[in-house]
Amino acid sequence: APRLELDRVTCSYDETAVLSDISLTVRPGEFVSILGPSGSGKSTLFKLLTGARRPDGGAMRFDGRVLDRAGRPFAFMPQRDALMPWRRIIDNTTLGLEVQGMRRAEARRRVMPLFSEFGLDGFEEHYPGELSGGMRQRAALLRTVVQDKPMLLLDEPFGALDALTRAGMQRWLHEMWSQHDWTALLVTHDVREAVYLSDRIYIFSPRPARIIREITVDLPRPRI
Ligand code: ADP
Ligand code: ADP
């Protein structure tokens, strides 16, 4: 069975359809991107997956079972405001585990060994405002992956970064990807990012979003 399966999912705000008949799959170990212009319903799709909103129709299954309300199998990285500015980086990266009920000391033992891999060595006690934009996004991603959920949901993780930092982060994520057993669904409006990072891409049309094309990326990675 695919890990994630959406079957003719629809969603509207008031009378306006935002997602129309969205059917897609993500298989274990795949990196899948949804590429679409802004306003095309990408964030709404993540709201459905995380349970913040209910679909009006269609089915969402995970490992063959209908997604129920409690205990969703996703670790979600939001587009912005991922870090709390008043918490040190170490305490931001343990948040996801603490929300799951882990004690802070144990959560710290879990995240500390990952700081160097995420380029954050020595910044544990700093506040988010003292870090570069790229470092903040890596800290947010660290908090997301350390939750050890079966699937990552990444909402425009590099969208707010300048072009040079963004390219560096894309290369870094690609490198990380090849070293970990992750499954991910990423939404982006950056064509190069989608092609560079993904195994498959679904292209959304604007309002209401439909999947207008599914592309398997079996090309060599473009330079970025
Ligand atoms: P994207 O993430 O692709 O930019 P969104 O899912 O945020 O798209 O939004 C899709 C569409 O739904 C947009 O036209 C947006 O204006 C509309 N929309 C989003 N949230 C709401 C809401 N709470 N109420 C009404 N319309 C909304
Ligand atoms: P990126 O955002 O991709 O990390 P930068 O050029 O902003 O790229 O940072 C490169 C390196 O410079 C960082 O990995 C870090 O070691 C160091 N650095 C960046 N910002 C700061 C800062 N505010 N204080 C101390 N060191 C920093």
How would you sum up this structure, described in words?
This protein has helices at 42-50, 89-93, 95-99, 104-111, 133-145, 163-179, 191-197; strands spanning 4-13, 16-26, 31-35, 57-62, 65-66, 74-77, 151-155, 184-188, 200-204, 211-216. The chain is α/β, with parallel strands linked by helices. The model has no long low-confidence stretch (mean pLDDT 92). This is ABC-type nitrate/sulfonate/bicarbonate transport system ATPase subunit.
How are the SSEs placed, and which strands pair?
Layout: E1 4-13, E2 16-26, E3 31-35, H1 42-50, E4 57-62, E5 65-66, E6 74-77, H2 89-93, H3 95-99, H4 104-111, H5 133-145, E7 151-155, H6 163-179, E8 184-188, H7 191-197, E9 200-204, E10 211-216
Parallel strand pairs: 3-8, 3-9, 6-7, 7-8
Antiparallel strand pairs: 1-2, 1-4, 4-5, 9-10
Extended strand count:
10
The ligands bound in this entry are:
adenosine-5'-diphosphate
Helix fraction bin: 25-40%
Widest beta sheet: strand line-up: 6-7-8-3-9-10
What's the mean pLDDT score?
92
Topology pattern, helix = H, strand = E: EEEHEEEHHHHEHEHEE
Span of the ends, CA to CA: 34 Å
Helix tally equals 7
Classify the secondary structure makeup into a structural class.
alpha/beta
Strand content: 25-35%
Low-confidence regions: none
The outline comes out as globular
Rg: 17 Å
